[in-house]
């Protein structure tokens, strides 16, 4: 943004990869944060015949000059993606004794549709630092009708609310 009459210039970062439903560690709310998690386009989408919405999850390092470009050799963006999967909004849950901004897990409800049209869904748990799968819990043989998610701790205290 340029304002010639006020002699002001503002710069904005533009992500080089699509990120929808962005989330971050809410302990950094109203503060500068480095890591952003979101839903992103899947490389499986163009070739998937069932016609389902197919997307993955992405972690973007906002301090990296190649923001979110998972095709650039210097990119630090990390993805979780599998054929036929459509992820809901990621929810960041910090470890109780976290010392780093990305020290925690990512939760997402994932709908899976196979080529024959069968449906299932599961709760996906990813390591927030590496985006590697830690586990999943089967929810059922249906697709969940949700895009958003929230998390409260054992005491009912909101940790990540959308």
From TrEMBL:
Binds 1 Fe(2+) ion per subunit. GO terms for biological process: carotene catabolic process. Keywords: Iron, Metal-binding, Oxidoreductase. It comes from Lichtheimia corymbifera JMRC:FSU:9682. GO terms for molecular function: carotenoid dioxygenase activity; metal ion binding. Pfam families: RPE65. Fe cation binds at residue 148. Belongs to the carotenoid oxygenase family. PANTHER family: BETA-CAROTENE DIOXYGENASE, CAROTENOID ISOMEROOXYGENASE. The keyword Iron applies. The keyword Lyase does not apply. Its cofactor is Fe(2+). This is Carotene oxygenase.
């Amino acid at each position: 943004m340029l304002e010639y009459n006020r002699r002001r210039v503002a710069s904005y970062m533009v992500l080089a990869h699509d990120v929808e439903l962005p989330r971050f560690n809410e302990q950094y709310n109203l503060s500068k944060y480095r890591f952003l998690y979101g839903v992103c386009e899947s490389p499986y989408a163009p070739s998937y015949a069932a016609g389902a919405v197919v997307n993955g999850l992405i972690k973007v390092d906002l301090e990296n000059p190649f923001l979110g470009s998972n095709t650039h050799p210097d990119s630090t963006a990390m993805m979780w993606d599998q054929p036929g999967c459509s992820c809901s909004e990621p929810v960041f849950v910090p470890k109780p004794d976290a010392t780093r901004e990305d020290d925690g897990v990512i939760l997402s409800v994932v709908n899976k549709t196979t080529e024959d049209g069968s449906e299932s869904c599961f709760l996906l748990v990813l390591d927030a630092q590496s985006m590697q799968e830690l586990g999943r819990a089967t929810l059922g043989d249906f697709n969940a009708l949700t895009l958003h998610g929230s998390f409260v701790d054992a005491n009912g205290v909101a940790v990540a609310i959308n």
